[in-house]
């Protein structure tokens, strides 16, 4: 069948993207679902920095590629062997499919699935190959999803069934931003009530980390960013202290607010200099800094050994350490019960034709989550 999709044919386009149009909206051919696959009618898809990092060339991927990985929709058709979903089910896409059999999956770490990572790197589905074509040209999949499209065929292992009462535009965020940010706090760090948390970078993932910290009972919670608007939004989420990242004494402010340094800091920027600052804002002796943000390919981090010798821990997290297919329904319940409030994260609603303008908003720091609604 035919479907409209946002296709990236070259990386590193000049800005503004509203003029250079790196994503072209094309009518392409979508194959029917094969064994172990599902056809999804996409209803909403969030714009994530991981998409932008492919557009600008920071994270090279095989081209041409149909972008998009944070989305929600409804099941339209089932491939052979898929017997645990039904047509009409509401689903969220996840960007790391898990095979269930490799060593990380067997150890309960599906976010590190080796076949899933290899398929993502090749621009293929976990089930193998691609399902999108422009004439005779094969189009690669972005992270097994290619969700900037009206329809997608994906591996069953890229989908999570959700409560149909959850609106699609909110549901889309649970596939990446919410699960990654909340997961980093809950799974990777294991934040407990009364522990102090500082989050640097208040995009979708960073704000989700703030929400996760509040839901865990962390106190104090400190939010750090360059945008006054994002800092103001963070203060509306609960008892959150804010620090402007441009202040020369920003690290000292975090230390003062957290009694000498935070028990946990989270970098959600992907900037290696910010990662170092987040480590230095940890408490000497027991503080842990968690890297969530994805840096450009080839980037390296550094710090003085003294920072680690004096007891700080530096660690990373993949997909928030989440077991997506089992954890998303629980986090959805948090939202439905009012324990976390993600609605303020959605700052712009776009059409598919406005997607290039949406990435301009992201680059300029003027959006938290822009969502394409179909």
The CATH architecture assignment of the largest domain turns out to be Alpha-Beta Complex
- Could you say which structural class the secondary elements and strand pairing correspond to? alpha/beta
Number of domains: 2
Number of E strands = 18
Largest sheet: 7 strands, mixed
**What is the third-level CATH name, the topology of the largest domain?**
Quinone Oxidoreductase, Chain A, domain 1
Helix-residue proportion: 25-40%
CATH superfamily of the largest domain: Medium-chain alcohol dehydrogenases, catalytic domain
Q: Output the number of helix runs.
A: 13
- Uncertain residue segments: none
Distance, first to last CA: 17 Å
Overall 3D shape: globular
Q: How much of the polypeptide forms β-strand, as a percent range?
A: 15-25%
Mean of pLDDT: 95
Which class of the largest domain in CATH terms? Alpha Beta
Provide the gyration radius in Å: 20 Å
Could you outline the blueprint of secondary structure elements for this entry?
Blueprint lengths: L1 E7 L8 H4 L2 E8 L6 E10 L2 H7 L9 E2 L3 E9 L11 E4 L9 H4 L7 H9 L9 E3 L2 E5 L9 E5 L3 E3 L6 H6 L3 H13 L7 E4 L3 H12 L5 E5 L2 H9 L3 E5 L5 H8 L6 E4 L4 H9 L7 E4 L13 H5 L3 E4 L7 H13 L9 E5 L4 H9 L5 E5 L1
Parallel strand pairs: 4-8, 11-12, 11-14, 12-13, 14-15, 15-16, 17-18
Antiparallel strand pairs: 1-2, 1-4, 2-7, 3-5, 3-9, 3-18, 5-6, 6-10, 7-8
Helix pairs in contact: 6-7
Describe, in plain words, how this protein is organized in 3D:
The protein is an alpha/beta fold. The protein folds into two domains: 2-175 and 342-373, Medium-chain alcohol dehydrogenases, catalytic domain (Quinone Oxidoreductase, Chain A, domain 1), CATH 3.90.180; 178-318, Rossmann fold. It has helices at residues 17-20, 49-55, 103-106, 114-122, 168-173, 177-189, 204-215, 228-236, 250-257, 272-280, 305-309, 324-336, 355-363, and strands at residues 2-8, 23-30, 37-46, 65-66, 70-78, 90-93, 132-134, 137-141, 151-155, 159-161, 197-200, 221-225, 240-244, 264-267, 288-291, 313-316, 346-350, 369-373. The strands form three sheets. Strands 3, 5, 6, 9, 10, 17 and 18 form a seven-stranded mixed sheet that branches. Helix 6 (177-189) packs across helix 7. The radius of gyration is 20 Å and the shape is globular. The mean pLDDT is 95.
